[in-house]
Fold each of these.
Amino acid sequence: MAGTNPDRGASLSTVLGRRLGGELLRMRAGRGLRQSAAAKVLTASVAKVAKMERGQVPMRDPDIRALCHLYEQHDEEAIGRLLELAEVDRERRKAKGWWDHHPELSSLTEYVALEAVATQIQTWQPAVVPGLLQTPAYTRALALGSGSWTDLERIEPFVEARMARQERLQGEHPLGLWAVLHECALRQFVGGQSVMKEQLSHLLDMTKHPNLRLQLVPYSAGAHPAMGGSFNIISFAEPGSLDVVYMDTTLTPLWLENEPDTARHTEFFKVLADLALSPRDSVELVEAIHKEL
């Protein structure tokens, strides 16, 4: 994955690089220009332009500005978002994070690396407590219950890695987390009654953090447009600024990087937040479920 070796950065594609390259491709296509026109402006080869549009190489700010000028993109705010995304992508490619030493993260490596540089995550979870809010016992019970671990000794390092991720919610510039959960996620006895009671206590403690917003969709809310599964909207600047969407499917993670898909999931999330209880009422429901245990 990107970030494991800085010397390989130029040959690797990252989620952020693809998102940035896709925006440049969209602008070029909108002007009806060929890659050769972009190559001429950059004094580069057509092959390099193709790699840029596929997110396979980090992009320099002067190149982005030159292409925006060619594509008649003069909106400084829009250009600024591209430059900011390019900077985050460059940092992501050369970074050696703690996650690179945890092979048990497997397909989550890219997600965790992006989580480390994100400013906000909006997560919809219909069945489980989000990883950033889990207790060790809850994480361990989920891993055991999944049946996907052939080597049970690797579960503990996985639990440790998930706990390390939670440090992102603290510090000088903590990650903003807006979590919308379905009520059933708190009523599912993952690990048994004692594990869930501890998990709910931890969740109540976390709601006291100013960078966390928790809302619950009650059973009474009925049908909604996101019943198909969970998703995370990852922002690297202001929400809506070149966001990417991550979906953890049964077999493989799925990244949605184009603007229509991210806009659609942003709308889904808004609908869910409107259906959900207010943060205050959500805390009261967590407390009620906790008392039942």
Amino acid sequence: MPRAVCARCERPATTCLCATLPAPLTHRTELLILQHPAEAGHAKNTAAFLTLGLQSARLLRGEVFDAELAGPGTVLLYPDAASAAGTARAAEVRRLVLLDGSWRQSRRLLAANPWLTGLPRFTLPERVSRYAIRRAHRPGQLSTLEAGLHALALLEDDPAHFAPLWAAFDRFVQAGLYRREIGLA
């Protein structure tokens, strides 16, 4: 018998996020999360936090996406400052595109969607990840939630506004660590 899954956050009922999430937070910059299909079923995936915790965040799953998603003011959050398209300034950004998946999956998404490489890039200064459930392969690698919230804080010049979602994320990480410690993860 398949285990029960929450229809809202798509997690197993035993690890449902819904009770920890604040009411969706308002923000000026739209987030568009393009999720590799292989990432969708991961129990440790953080894209649900962004789509459920922010009013203007949308998640699309697939490998190939319509180039019409790249309207005026659309910028790709990706750590390649040497992009031929240049680096975006905060005032220019209306929609921020995040790629959700492993680094290999994100490179596949870039290759399958050449229009993404033509977008200006927004890069983050190196940060230490708070996501102790997953292992980063290199310093500065962040979960999708961490990258999205850090970017919004910079773009909207209001880090404190996103504190309720950070608190929910921290509770999720602690619960995951606890589950691992007692042998449930």
Amino acid sequence: MTRPAGGVVLAAGCVLWRRSPFDGELEICLVHRPKYDDWSHPKGKLKRAESPLDGALREVEEETGHRCAPGARLPTARYLAQGRPKEVSYWAAEATEGHFTPNAEVDRIIWLPPAAARNRLTQPRDQQLVDALLSVLNPA
């Protein structure tokens, strides 16, 4: 359910990553949403009775055209969106197969190294998810 008691909007997404086909280095996929003219991680509102992980995987495929293998749970983002509390559950997810086709919601995707992805993201809260991904992929 997307709006439980308390009016919190529930959403889910992934920090989608792959190894570059050119040099094998880590790349992170960002989506551009023309409605907001922003760069973010693929995410979206949950459908009624949809689990957060199922919603995250669905949103990744809808927004990027890529299927993915989910990994570690990442921090949950909590913020106000258009005056309403929103809670977005995130996972690390490795892209497995697929092909991007522009649509009304997402007109571009880009694969970037972590530092460049962090700099391209519009919202600082999304930048923290890049650091969280790096910590699960490269534990100290």
